[in-house]
Each structure stands twice: as structure tokens, then as C-alpha cells.
Amino acid sequence: MAGIHVHDPGIAVHLRRNTHYDTERLAPDRKALELCCFLHTLLYELTDVSADITGRRLNDIYRFASNHAEKLQVRRSTDLRAERVKLKAVLYDGKLSDKQKVAAIKELITNEPHTVEDSRASLVRQSLVEDESHRISALVNAMGVFDVRGDDNNTVLKQVKILRDLVERRVGELPGDFDISLAAPNWRAMLQLPDRKKALAALKACVMSSVRKEIKGGKLWLAHSRKHRDREEQLIPISDWQAMRGGFLSAMSLTADPEKSLPDFVKKFSTPSLNSPPPWMKGVSRLTDKDICTFRPLLPWTLSPKSPERGIPSLKSSARFSTGNCW
């Protein structure tokens, strides 16, 4: 404020005396507490924003790899068409004998083991390793800021720890003693490539895709995050639930033992009165010999004859459930 030039001296003095924020007027302990709460909330928000940005970047990388895979499929289809034209010319050449045709076909089709995978997913994985390896590496380095947690026996978490150790030691190749059983089955072939640099790139792509799936499934979570935190923290503690469960069941007139209520439920459908139900229940439900309770499809209910389109749509398939598995 000393650098502000004001023509009125009184206003300049007033500005210099009232430059403190409201937090400066708080007690030291209260100010420290509010600062800690602010930093804690800010840390959670930054973690969630960073996770969202990482997810979008991974989607972009997969989109680029999918485009490369599509181009490769088009190129292969063109090559197959050219090979078909050559085979057709050999087969319908009247000047060649049968032995000469077989020899010519063998020259066109070499006897090599079929190792090329033609599925779209395999081509996308191949493109991630060969065409997008630099972006995957940058994303793995950025993922180092996240504290990924989970069960110690989780195979994906073990891969994350191994990959972090390799990145910290700046290892450029995947060690030959890496346990490929930790990875997903569709990535194991690429982890066994003779080129160990490509194998390391395959491990990075495998870890990124697996971590995203595990976090979405709740098997892994991020520390200091609200969106991707441990699901156990979002539930009522087991001790508290056991203490409150009885009150909830009593309030809803329910029982915790299904063996007490299930026989009465089955008895209602097993009585002979079901064969002659009231008119409004006729054909609604039926109990089969295998304890399968079936309900007829709901029919449209027209609210007004003038507006039949406002009726409830019918269900074409019957809804049914097993009385033995309803609990």
C-alpha cells in the first residue's frame, strides 16, 4: 500500500491502517486451525482434479491408439486383397500344371507361425506400446504424485510398486525375472517380448489401464481424495451398524432371521386359494413346481380415453424370482 499515491493525505493514512485481512484479527490458535482445515480441503480438491485430468489424458491416449489400430486394419485388408488377386491369377492360369501351381502358391504363402493377432483390442495394445509409449511414460511419471492404496495381496497394487521401483531406479528395460502372472492375461504376451524396452512400455500401459479399472471397481483407492477414497470409509462402521440394526428392523417390523419370515411367504403362494384368486389378482402371479414365482406382464393403463398415449408402457417379458433365493 505504500506504493499507492493518493492526493488526499487522510485517505492514504486510512488505507495504510486498514490493510489487514480478517484472519489477522483471529487468535493464533484459531488462525492455525483454520489454516490447517483450508489446506486439508485444498489437498482433497487438488487430488480429485489431478485424478480427473489423468483419466482424461489416458482416454486421449487410448483414442489415439484406436485410430492407429484402425489404420493398421485398413492397411492389412488392402494387403489381403492384393494377395487374393495373386492367388486367383495362379489358380486360374491354364499354362501351369498342378505341381507348378502348388509351388507358386507356396512362394506366395510362406510357412511361418501365425503370431499376428488380428483382434481390435490386441491392435490397440500393440499401438499403445509402439506408438504411444512416450505419452504413457509421461503419464506414469505424473501418476507418481498419487498415493495408491489397497489390499496388499492385490496384484495390480503389486505391479504399481514394482513399476515405481523401476522408475525411481531409472531402469530402461523390464527385468527378465518379472513375474508375468501378476499382469492381466491379455498383456502377458507383450511382457515376454525379446525387446525388453517394449516389454517395459507394455508394463506401463498395463498398469495404467489396470489401475483405472481397479479404482472404478473400488478395489484400489487414492489417499487424500473424496471421489476415489476407500469405500469402507463411506460406510457405517460395523460396530455401529450392529448396534443400530435392531432398532431399524423393529421400526420397519422386520426380522433379522429370514428363516422365520420365508415360510410364511411361501405359504401364501402354496395355499389352494391361489387357484381361485380375486378378480384383480387373476393371472397376476403363479408358483411353479420349482419354487419360481412368475408375474404376468404389466398392461398399459390409459388414464383418459382422450389421451391414450399417457398410459403406462407394458413390459413384454415376465418378471419372476425364486422364492428360495429371495433372501
Give the key terms.
disordered C terminus; three-stranded antiparallel beta sheet; 327 residues; 11 helices; two-stranded antiparallel ribbon; 5% strand; 54% helix; mainly alpha
Give a short summary of the structure.
This protein is mostly helical and 327 residues long. The chain has helices spanning 9-17, 28-91, 98-108, 120-130, 133-143, 155-168, 188-191, 196-217, 231-234, 238-251, 258-270; strands at residues 148-150, 220-222, 285-287, 292-295, 319-322. Among the domains are: 22-110; 130-229, no CATH class.
Series of H and E elements = HHHHHEHHHEHHHEEE
CA-atom Rg in angstroms: 34 Å
Average pLDDT over all residues: 77
Number of strands: 5
Estimated structural class: mainly alpha
Oligomer: single chain
Spans of 5+ residues with little confidence (pLDDT < 50)?
307-327
Structural shape = extended
Q: How much strand?
A: 5-15%
Residues in helix, % = 40-55%
Order of strands across the main sheet: 3-4-5
**How many individual helices?**
11
> Strand count, sense and closure of the main sheet?
3 strands, antiparallel
Could you explain the architecture of this structure?
- This protein has 327 residues and is mainly alpha-helical.
- Among the domains are: 22-110; 130-229, no CATH class.
- The protein contains eleven helices and five strands, in the order H-H-H-H-H-E-H-H-H-E-H-H-H-E-E-E.
- Strands 3-4-5 form a three-stranded antiparallel beta sheet, with no helix packed on it. A two-stranded antiparallel sheet has the order 1-2.
- A hairpin with a 4-residue loop joins strand 3 and strand 4.
- Helix 6 packs across helix 8.
- The chain is extended and about 95 Å long.
- The chain starts with 8 loop residues before the first helix and ends in a 5-residue tail after the last strand.
